[in-house]
Amino acid sequence: MLRHIVRHIVKGRDNVFKASRRPNGLDISLSSTLENIDRADKNTKGFLHGMGLEAEAFAIRVAMREGILNAIRHGSCGDRNRIIRYSLRLENNSLIMEIEDEGSGFDWRTSLENKHLSNSGSGRGLSIMKAYFADVTFNDKGNKLILRKKIS
Predict the structure, then answer these.
(1) Under a CB-based contact definition with an 8 Å cutoff, are residues 64 and 40 in contact?
(2) Which stretch of DSSP H or E encloses residue 56?
(3) Are 21 and 47 spatial neighbours (Cβ–Cβ below 8 Å)?
(4) Beta strand 15-22 with 144-150: parallel, antiparallel or unpaired?
(5) Helix 34-50 to helix 57-70 angle, to the nearest 10 degrees?
């Protein structure tokens, strides 16, 4: 069985992007840059198309963009040399997305309790993710986001 295929690698002193496909998943390591969100989105779109999940694409891609943007802004504090790990996989009729940064984490318990949508330019990411995914959790440290969604 083919373990993975490296589809796309871009490297520079402060820009890393590595995407690998597996039969049921996608793994991406990327530098904390806004440009890499578009690269991750393109790979996500291709993965979802290949899995026949076009109907789920909008929700998944919006959550991915929000999660990686939060990892860039808050977890990596805009440091282009920090790496974010993003994965998407199908497992037991569920889609699981994980986004982990190298930051110190945050108090996710308080943030998940916040149910209102902010009118400011930020603060809506978790609410958006909760609207599209049944399960939104974090590791204890608060630097790894795990989203789960049943796929029919």
Answers:
(1) yes
(2) none
(3) yes
(4) unpaired
(5) 150
Q: Tens-digit pLDDT profile for the chain (152 aa)?
A: 334 444 445 555 468 999 999 999 999 999 999 999 999 999 999 999 999 999 999 999 999 999 999 999 999 998 999 999 999 999 999 999 999 999 888 777 776 566 554 454 556 788 889 999 999 999 999 899 999 999 97
Helix (H) / strand (E) element for 85: namely: strand 83-91
- For residue 86, which phi and psi values (nearest 5 degrees)? -130, 135
Domain range for 97: 5-150
pTM of the model: 0.84
Tokens at residue 2, please?
């083919």
Q: Domain containing 66 — which CATH number?
A: 3.30.565.10
Cβ neighbours of 63 (radius 10 Å): 25
Are 84 and 30 contacting, i.e. CB atoms less than 8 angstroms apart? yes
